[in-house]
Amino acid sequence: MTDPAGSTSAPEGAFFSHKVVSGATWAILNKAVLFLVVLGVQIFTPRVLGPEKYGVLSLCLTIGETLIIFCGLGLNTALVRFVPELMVDKNRAGIVRMVLKTGLLQMGAVTGAGVLLFVMRPQFDAWFNVAFGSLLIIVVGFTAARMFKTLMDDAFTALFQVRTTSALSLIQGLLWFSLLLALLKPHPTPHTALWIQIGTLSSVAIVEAFLLRRYLRGLDWQSPRHGIGKRRTLKIASASFINAIANVFMRQYSELFFLGVFFSKSVVGWYALGCVLPLQLITFLPSGLQTLFTSGFAEAYSRDKGCLPKLIATYYKALIVTVLPVSIFGFFAAPRLIGLLFGDPMKEAGPIASLFFLVHMQGLLSVPLSMAIVVKEKILNMQPLMLLTIGVNLLLDYLLIPRYGMYGAVGAVFGTFFLTIPIRLYVVSRLIGGIYFPQAFFARFCLLLTLLAGAAYPLLPHVGKAGMAAIVVAYAAAYLALIRAMRLIKPEDVAELRALGFVRLNRVIDFFVKKAEAGPIAQG
Questions:
Q1: How far apart are CA 170 and CA 285, in angstroms?
Q2: Spatial separation of the C-alpha atoms in residues 379 and 386, rounded to whole Å
Q3: Residue 273, number of CB atoms within 10 A of its CB
């Protein structure tokens, strides 16, 4: 492990310190491998279980993910925001207290949720027309295991010990996939899939807890008497809690519940696959870096209060270059891709996936703004807007899903976004001083990628797996070549991307622009 007491300074002109840059490298490598693991799980599980059982599993996972939001109490956001500050003060006791109290409060909430689910099991059976049996109790175990693992991951990440959590998360992912391959076919039930996740998550989280304890005990720090304080912690945690609940409704959970009540479990399975696969493909890199970069935003802001406008714009550009190609190609290719990967029983998910490749891109573009709001501790100011968003989303769910099914669910998500986005942008701009979205940069890349993916579209319905792989490779190669040929990255973009402080990224920039435009590679 690296020394957390080391320098938090950044190279001259760079936003992020050496610790953030080094951690990002490990997080990217880990996320790349885990992405393949999760994709394998996503392909294998529906094929073995079929639409009906996969629909039941999707409902169980949705209930579990919802419980995670409620039982998390928003405390992980406080952990990620304040642990870097405690590190600067060399306050070991404050870090220990924050991790312990977070874990105890969250596990207490899970216990209460478990009792509630046990009492309400007959109501859940009636609502969703499913004999859940012991599944709801197993879901509580899944919730506890996921929250324990996430707490350990976030603690290590906030300490900038990303190498440790990345290595252990990779072990957990490989173990999960291996056990799924070995056990799911002989026992093709939602119970098996859930128990495998519980076992692997819990085992690795226990190892992480042991390593975290040993690491913190090894810090030779004279801790100050006071830490962050209850007021600051509760303020950011309560606001994050409400914000997370709003995201439950904005992503997929409320739609899945409505579909479970009004339609068959096969419909639930198709919709879940159509929603989850694009989300994993689009966010596999940003989600792996979000916790680390939130702490990095906090560290950069502590050094320079005026850094956020350029940092937000630069992060937007990095997202556009890396994520927009996946979103646009996925929109054109999803129907054929779903059929090739998951077989004919799941092909109904194809058009839904196509639409969600656009839906999830909208949500991703709010990430830099969300980081800035967390850093400025302004989450509470967003709560009236979050409540409005929840109300609009539930109303659209009620009006559209019973009548239009899966497409009504997608329409509810789209409608919520378009009805609330003007208000959201206004509120955010008042809180952080602007939106800082690089419109011209986005338009250049969006036009190029739409033309490339559109050119491949006539071929997609007729290709097999090898043909699809060839199209993906050709699309990626043409995209990279045209960035350089058409000079889509301008000199001012180069300067901003260099300011992130990533040496390897700077070398990649040299490939896409003339060296005279790129300037010297920043050291760090």
A1: 14
A2: 10
A3: 27
Per-residue pLDDT of the chain (524 residues; tens, 9 = 90+): 444 444 444 444 455 555 555 556 666 666 667 777 877 887 888 888 888 888 888 888 888 888 888 888 888 878 877 777 777 777 788 888 888 988 899 999 999 999 998 888 888 888 888 888 889 999 999 999 999 998 998 888 878 777 777 788 888 888 999 999 999 999 999 999 999 999 999 999 999 999 988 888 887 776 666 666 677 777 777 767 766 766 665 555 678 778 888 888 788 888 888 888 888 788 777 766 666 666 666 666 666 677 777 778 888 888 888 889 999 999 999 999 888 888 888 888 899 999 999 888 877 777 788 778 877 777 667 778 877 888 888 899 999 999 999 999 989 988 888 888 888 888 888 888 888 888 888 999 999 999 999 999 999 988 898 999 999 999 999 998 888 888 888 777 776 666 665 555 566 666 666 544 444 444 43
The answer to whether the beta carbons of residues 381 and 431 sit under 8 Å apart is yes
Structure tokens at 239: 């606001």
Please list, in sequence order, all residues whose beta carbon lies within 8 angstroms of the beta carbon of residue 443, skipping any fewer than 6 positions away.
none
102, burial (CB in 10 Å: exposed 0-12, middle 13-18, buried 19+): buried
- Distance CA(65)–CA(150), nearest Å, equals 12
Residue recorded with tokens 């076992």: 199
